[in-house]
Amino acid sequence: MENSTAQDPNCINYMTDSDHEKSELELPPDLVTEDKMRRRLQFFFMNPIEKWHAKRRFPYKFIVQVVKIVLVTMQLCLFASSRYNHVSYTWDNRITFSHLFLKGWDTTREVNSYPPSVGPLAIYTEKDFFDTIDYAYKGYSSLSTSVGSYSYANEDNTPVDMVFCLYQYKEGIIYGFNESYIFNNEIIESCMNISRHQVGDVLDSETFMKAEPVNLSFSALVRADLMFSLKTVNFRAASKISAPNCYRFDITISFSNDNHDGQITLDLDADATRLMCKGDTKYITDNEIANFMRSLLNYLVITTCVISFILCARAVWRAQQLKNATVRFFAEHFDKKLTMHDRHKFLNMWYIMIIVNDILIVMGSAIKEQIESVEFTSDQWNICSLFLGIGNMLVWFGVLRYLGFFKTYNVVILTLQKSAPQVARFLICAVLIYAGFTFCGWLILGPYHLKFRSLSTTSECLFSLINGDDMFATFSIMSNKSLLLWWFCRIYLYSFISLYIYVILSLFIAVIMDAYETIKLYYSEGFPKSDLDMFIGSTNWDELSNGMFRSDSNDSLGGRIKDLCCYSGINAKYRTLSGKRFKRNASV
After folding, report:
1. Do 373 and 367 meet the contact criterion of CB atoms below 8 Å apart?
2. What is the DSSP letter of 208?
3. Cis before 115 (ω within 30)
């Protein structure tokens, strides 16, 4: 047997399960080292249930993840409800401000419909431009007639001056009759205050601007903004333990003339900022209780995520230490290099995902605590919801890790893992074809088709066509101003739909099904074994319960700290034992 082993230098002398029954005193020192290394690797690749039976250690990471998913989901539900009320309230107020301050606004513009039932709100004459400013000023001056409880921004409820800003080219004169012009593309900003003390209750903006040192030229006009602020209180947010919310709305009416196409589009934006209320004292005590409970939940989430981050980061670091020890062990004992596939097994991507969601949730919870304790703007709501939403999504994805310990549910995870390289290569080819259709459709059909007006809408239209959505509307919306492009649109859409639905999607499903059939075959005939898998071998419940794995553990506090912080000592132990082995072989 010694000759046969010597003839094959690549052969690894793996221990069989029967070798475990021998006494360690009867084994040579090198095999004792292999047995200890095997037990460490077997324990590392166990699931939490097997680790519990092997060493009877409390599953800290599992319990922390369970507590975290409960707290994070509770926090997200409360924040989502609060954010929905905030966004809904600010949007409804924006609609109200549009009725009060925008001339020509009607209720048909409040309903989102596709295709759009109305065109953009725009003005086409100089008189309409000045009338729109006068209408906004009149609505601002007669604010008390509104059914909404709006007040002026000053503490004494007196109107704050409206600010009107013009953005114009430094020079922009057009002589269309002889095809000539004077143009300087430098944009000059000029602002003026429209004070109620100067103009009274009624504004004649055309006369007012002539008196101001502002030279308004519509041929040079790029944009104009009319800005003012209002305050209000939202009683809807009030409950038994929460007080009403106070807001300041910074309203901006924009006149956009960027295209210089004969129309100036109108738009109203209302940026909401929550203020600290000075209201009814009976809400002070109850509101403090509500704030304390919200803050307590935020701090509990942050604390749980920090603990989860530390435990998972420690597990990742210890796994890399064990990988380095295993690589050195294989090189010194078997003269083998651990393959890249086996090395990747030591990097647990589930832990990486948990670390990422811990960071996102901590950042989102910190912003949420800031939102609930001080003044804030709408942008902070969006940033906070982004962090908490993605973090919570990854937390729920992490539940798949524990379902993967069961054979029935693990098929999905293993199929996705097996098909990932093939799917990635397939998608690269599909995306290249998709990009070609997207750019072609945007360039040729954009001026004549509503769904191809921009690169993003073109991509969205093609993606919806792949899923069979709104096909007839896509065909019928095409303008018939050009017969050539009308026929091209038909050929283009028929080609794209046929190629992606009948060919590419079918091939994509075939790639997934091939991976699924391979996983099913592995379950029936056994998974392929690498050098690392063959060395580790398999364990049964008797071996987990007989205390074999607990013999290597150190239950003292100092031993646990050393095991946590000084795991690299394993490498020195293996180098020492390997050196003794090589010296003994040399002497023989």
Report:
1. no
2. H
3. yes
Helix pair 378-397, 60-101: axis angle to 10 deg: 150
Element (H, E) at 354: helix 349-373
Strand partners, 250: 229, 271
| Residue carrying structure tokens 């002497």 | 587
Cα separation of 487 and 503, whole Å?
23
Tokens 């690589």 sit on residue: 327
CA distance 433 to 471: 20
Q: DSSP characters for 12-31?
A: --PPPGGGGGS-GGGS-HHH
Taking the alpha carbons of 237, 243, 244, 247 in that order, is the dihedral positive or negative?
Answer: negative
Element (H, E) at 251: strand 245-256
| pTM listed for this prediction | 0.72
CATH of span 418-525: 1.10.287
- The DSSP output letter for 66 is H
CA distances from 124 to 121, 224, 406 (A): 10, 15, 68
Give, as one character, the DSSP assignment of residue 501: I
pLDDT tens, N- to C-terminus, the chain (588 residues): 334 434 444 444 444 444 443 433 344 444 437 777 877 887 787 777 777 777 777 777 888 888 999 999 999 998 888 888 888 888 999 999 999 999 989 888 888 777 777 888 999 999 999 999 999 999 999 998 899 889 998 888 888 899 999 999 988 888 888 888 888 889 999 999 988 888 888 888 888 888 777 788 899 999 999 999 999 988 876 666 567 788 899 999 999 998 888 899 999 999 888 887 776 656 555 556 777 788 889 999 999 999 999 999 998 998 888 888 888 888 888 787 888 878 888 888 888 999 999 999 999 999 888 887 765 656 688 889 899 999 999 999 888 777 767 666 777 778 888 888 889 999 999 999 999 999 999 999 998 898 999 999 999 999 999 988 888 888 988 888 888 999 999 999 999 999 999 999 999 999 999 988 888 888 777 777 777 777 776 666 556 555 555 555 444 334 444 444 444 444 444 444 444 443 434 343
* C-alpha torsion angle, residues 146, 151, 156, 161 (rounded to 10): -90
- Residue ranges per structural domain of the chain: 58-99+283-403, 102-279, 418-525, 541-588
- Which residues, 6 or more positions from 352, have their beta carbon under 8 angstroms from its beta carbon? 316
- Rounded Cα–Cα distance for residues 552 and 181 (Å): 89
Q: In which residue are the tokens 């709006």 written?
A: 150
3-state secondary structure of 277: coil
Query: Which amino acid, residue 403?
Result: L
Q: Is the dihedral of CA 422, 423, 424, 430 positive or negative?
A: positive
The values of phi and psi at residue 224, to 5°, are: -140, 140
Distance, in Å, from the CA atom of 78 to the CA atom of 294, rounded to the nearest integer, reads: 9
Dmax (CA) for the chain in angstroms is 111
3-class SS string, 82-110: HHHHHHHHHHHHHHHHHHHHCCCCCHHHH
**Interatomic CA distance for residues 540 and 442, integer angstroms:** 62
CA 297 to chain CA centroid, nearest Å: 22
